[in-house]
Amino acid sequence: MNVMVEGAYVLGAYLLGAIPVAYLIGKARRVDIAAAGSGNLGAGNTTRLLGAKAGALVALLDGAKGLAAVFAGRWMSFSPGLIAVGALAAVAGSNWSIYLGRRSGRGLATSSFAMLAFDPITVLWPGVWSVVGWKIGGGISGFFGWAFLWTAAYALERPPETVLLAAGMGLLMIIRRSQGNLDDSGQEGPVARVFFDTDHRRSPAEVASGDKSLA
């Protein structure tokens, strides 16, 4: 397979993943998702600001980017290893959008749907932790669900490409969480953000009034 074609596939997966769905839906409703709530451009913050329907739409569209990256690779008869790279590129795009020139979402919907298409049984691990999150908190359960996804894939004797994809997704999640969002209060350290996803931002009203308290 031509190296340029393979490179174009990975680049295309990134550019697709980088489409800031939450930002666009928020703008359509005249709400800057990145400037309120947690400031995260994902389904959770969208739900808090615009309601469940808007949040569900963001989750589905973000997830579709992961599905498309995997299905496109299979349609082009790429190797599982290259498809895994394409899936990670889509997640990276979701986390760091070139269109916005900054950090954007957490990439969990994109990761979930990409893994669902790549190796469905592996999604059971983060799925169980999502349920556990109702009791112990979504932040810490999300950490265990994704940071240790590769161990679950290994224990389930999944192919090496699945284990590497799971490890890459966990690493991207950790890096993105540690960064927090732009213009946050700076009061949450990177360790707390990684484990508990405790990332807050002042609301637009507080920014306008000069209030330094957290949203």
Going by helix content, strand content and strand pairing, the class is mainly alpha
Strand content: under 5%
Taken from the alpha-carbon principal axes, the silhouette is globular
Mean of residue pLDDT? 88
Structure, explained:
It is a single chain. With 215 residues, this protein is mainly α. The chain has one domain (3-202). It has twelve helices and two strands; from the N terminus they run αααααββααααααα. The protein has helices at residues 3-17, 21-28, 43-50, 52-75, 80-95, 108-118, 124-136, 138-147, 149-155, 160-179, 190-196, 204-209; strands at 96-97, 102-103. β1 and β2 form a beta hairpin. It starts with a helix and ends in a 6-residue tail after the last helix. The model is unreliable at 206-215 (pLDDT under 50).
Question: Strands, helices and their partners?
Answer:
Elements: H1 3-17, H2 21-28, H3 43-50, H4 52-75, H5 80-95, E1 96-97, E2 102-103, H6 108-118, H7 124-136, H8 138-147, H9 149-155, H10 160-179, H11 190-196, H12 204-209
Antiparallel strand pairs: 1-2
Can you tag this structure with a few keywords?
single chain; 215 residues; mainly alpha; two-stranded antiparallel ribbon; 2 strands; globular
Summarize the structure.
The chain is built from twelve helices and two strands. With 215 residues, the chain is mainly α.
